[in-house]
UniProtKB/TrEMBL annotation:
Residue span of region Disordered: 547-583
Protein name: Negative elongation factor B
GO cellular component terms, semicolon-separated: NELF complex
Protein biosynthesis keyword on record: yes
Organism listed in the record: Carassius auratus
A GO BP entry: negative regulation of transcription elongation by RNA polymerase II
């Protein structure tokens, strides 16, 4: 407990023990020991007997003096560190030399730690001693740990790894949230709110202003993204940079070539739309990548691969297509649309670029613009034609039925092209948001076969299940249930557990709306096999309990809320060749 005192020439318990062992008059020896090691203030000696008369133990007195002096010294250390004197750090180093031998002493340790915290460069020998002692390492300030971490990547990795795992767990938990809503979904929190998350704040604090640690974290994120293909690491890469931006850490922001691009994109994500002004800014950054600096494209692609960025780009694409429709303009004639597709393409190609280390923008398939998007428009025209037909007087109606097939080009592109598939999936969400049952029943079967099974990814299924709550009353029809479950979700639930979970999430929310006979069949189909995870079994048990409870006390059906997501329909002139329903 008192290790280190002899080094400073101060007697400790062992010295007192030796003195008492070898002396002939113990009381005199104790008096002498107190005189030599007490507070060396002549006027104090005559005052101490008064404390004895009041029954105050000497230990209590000395402890209170010690505590007071320690606080004063710690305040003085902070004052010296914050001062302007040129020799302030030399003074602190001298104090460190004197106090460090007592670092294991609990009463002195806070002083030593305070000195270490305020030294911008702790002597290497002291850093090694702190690092080698688990207890000291645990209690030292993050400012000291940064100096240790910057030369010990493995140790820093051990500290960061649990935080990165926690971040992924939190993101995945949000995607499987039991709360199904179109207004409060995975993409609802603003960028600034997301940056207040525990992991982002901890990482930001751990990095401080240290560029070397920031680079290490980015390298960890790239490595994990390559190893797992998990796009949430891309989100964290963007959030971390913008968190440092919020704190005005110019030492890092000024050296990250992605800073201004991320800042501009962050504003777009906040608005969930890329306007013309910001589109020009973003294009300027992409066009400004100079020869020899192409490696920055790897980081830019990772930032664009962030699901929040991707969500904004695709929503903007759909809105842009609505505007083109109202203007009778072609997709190929819109520079803003072409830029959105370019950024989507760059984001979707992030993994390939970082894996291959070939830093070159992926070449965009122009047929997405010239063939796929027009095919998607033709689906809107079909829908419009059918709607108009239904409104005609009975004598003018033809025997037109709602189309049940899709243009071959549309189906082929959502199978073969990443960008086309992403746009196609968001178009399905858009149709669901409009409560367009016919179009949805027509489109869902096509999603069974999409590029890299994107339609069975957690992000799309999270959004789709939320959007389907708008059509809750339609689940009373076997035809609609069959379109959603038999023709889409149930085609892969047995091989993809995440699809199984999303099916159960949806049913937990809508079970009272689903046709009773169909619900019974679904329950048999969705019964979890033995090897299923606990989360699937828990969801299934919860659903069974709800069904039992609803049999005993049927509840009144809830009305689907009216929603406005900010994707405002565009008015279109009513001519036979132009659809009036928004895209």
């Amino acid at each position: 407990m008192f290790a280190g005192l002899p080094e400073l020439g101060i007697s400790n318990g062992e010295d007192l023990k030796e003195t008492l062992t070898n002396c002939t008059e113990p009381l005199k020896a104790i008096d002498q020991f107190q005189m030599e090691n007490g507070i060396l203030l002549p006027t104090l000696q005559s005052a101490l007997p008064f404390l004895d008369l009041h029954g105050t133990p000497r230990l209590e007195f000395h402890q209170s003096v010690f505590d007071e002096l320690r606080e004063k010294l710690m305040e003085r250390v902070a004052t010296i560190a914050e001062g302007k004197e040129e020799d302030r750090y030399m003074k602190l180093e001298e104090l460190l030399e004197k106090s460090f031998p007592l670092v294991k002493m609990p009463s002195i340790q806070p002083i030593v730690m305070r000195v270490l915290k305020h030294l911008p460069k702790v002597p290497e020998k002291k850093l090694k001693q702190v690092m080698a002692d688990k207890e000291l390492y645990k209690v030292c300030a993050v400012e000291v740990k940064r100096q240790i971490w910057q030369d010990n990547q493995a140790l820093f990795g051990d500290e960061v790894s649990p935080l990165l795992k926690q971040y992924i767990v939190e993101k995945e938990a949000a995607l499987f949230s039991s709360d199904l809503s179109i207004l409060h979904n995975f993409f609802s929190p603003s960028p600034k709110t997301r940056r207040q998350g525990e992991v982002v704040l901890k990482l930001t604090q751990m990095i401080g202003k240290n560029v070397k640690l920031y680079d290490m974290v980015l390298q960890f994120l790239r490595t994990l993204f390559l190893r797992t293909r998990n796009v949430h690491y891309c989100t964290l890469r963007a959030e971390l940079l913008m968190s440092l931006h919020d704190l005005d850490i110019s030492e890092i922001c000024s050296v990250d070539p992605c800073h201004k691009f991320s800042w501009c994109l962050d504003a777009c994500i906040r608005e969930k739309f890329v306007d013309a002004k910001r589109a020009r800014e973003l294009q300027g950054f992409l066009d400004g990548v100079k020869k020899g600096q192409e490696q920055v494209l790897g980081d830019l692609s990772m930032i664009l691969c962030d699901p929040f960025a991707c969500n904004t780009l695709v929503l903007s694409t759909v809105r842009n297509l609505q505007e083109l429709l109202s203007q009778d303009a072609l997709p190929r004639d819109s520079p803003d649309l072409l830029l959105l597709l370019r950024m989507l393409s760059l984001g979707q190609g992030a993994w390939d670029m970082i894996d291959s280390q070939v830093f070159k923008e992926p070449r965009m398939d122009l047929e997405v613009v010239t063939r796929f998007l027009p095919a998607m428009m033709s689906i809107v025209v079909d829908d419009y034609t059918f709607t108009v037909e239904q409104k005609l007087p009975s004598e003018e109606k033809t025997s037109l039925t709602y189309p049940n097939t899709l243009p071959e080009t549309f189906s082929r592109y959502i199978q073969e092209n990443r960008v086309a598939c992403e746009i196609g999936l968001y178009y399905v969400l858009h149709i669901a948001k409009q409560r367009n049952k016919n179009a949805l029943q027509r489109l869902l079967p096509a999603l069974v076969d999409t590029y890299n099974d994107m339609a069975f990814g957690d992000i799309f299924l999270h959004l789709l299940t939320g959007h389907l709550t708008l059509l809750s009353d339609e689940f009373g029809s076997e035809e609609f249930c069959s379109a959603v479950f038999d023709n889409f979700l149930l085609t892969s639930f047995s091989s993809k557990e995440n699809v199984h979970r999303h099916c159960l999430r949806l049913l937990n929310h809508l079970h009272q709306k689903v046709l009773v006979s169909y619900m019974e069949t679904l329950m048999k189909t969705l019964e979890p096999p033995k090897q299923s995870s606990e989360s699937v079994k828990e969801l299934c048990t919860l659903l069974k309990e709800k069904l039992e409870a609803s049999k005993k006390s049927p509840q009144e059906p809830e009305e689907a809320p009216s929603m406005d997501l900010g994707l405002h329909p565009v008015s279109v002139p009513s001519t036979p060749s132009t659809p009036t329903t928004p895209l």
